[in-house]
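Below is how a single chain appears once it has passed through the pipeline. First comes the sequence as given, then the structure the pipeline wrote out for it. We keep one example in the README because the format questions we get most often are answered faster by looking than by reading.
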Amino acid sequence: MSGTHAAENHMPAVVLHDSHGRRVVAAASELMRSLRFVFERERADSWAPIMKSMGRACGKALGVDEDAALAAAGRPALAAQSLEASLAVLQSKFTEYGWGVLAVDVSGAADFGLIIGRLEHSWFATSFADGTFFTDPFPAGVILGYFEHITGQVLDGAELACAGRGAPHCIFAVTTPDRLALIAGAITHESAEQLIARLKA
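Resulting structure:
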């Protein structure tokens, strides 16, 4: 979901094709705000888990599609590529789809099983700039699903800081479900730095 092209054309949603020829739905900010209103009206607090689940499926699909493209080119799958190459694919997709500029930090992966994503110019944070809630469960899910595909492990992910709530940029953590559960209750009232320190304790 990208708002850039749809907003430029003053349309609620359009179907585009990415650099691999895949169909991508581009939704305008107004449509996404309306969808969130409907979701929350029908079932309170349903927006975030639904969007995270959609993002997770999207992240896995990105990994599957990239592996297919690599196989067609006679190259090893993402899991056999260097970590830098795998990250470059994910980061380029965020830019291509208009979700924002993503930087992924895997320096804590070996010692703590922790992956940190930082997203600048988040389309979701911009679209929901007037909200007090965390706006980026979808990107959190995309990062989660992508790394689940690469590692073959069951992971979990969460948004730790949100540009829509005044943070300099959105920050995400991906780790094992048991480790993430340790900070779940503190996410809304502790800083991202404090939460990351807990995950590394």
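Residues 47-72 form the longest helix (26 residues).

See the next section for the split statistics.
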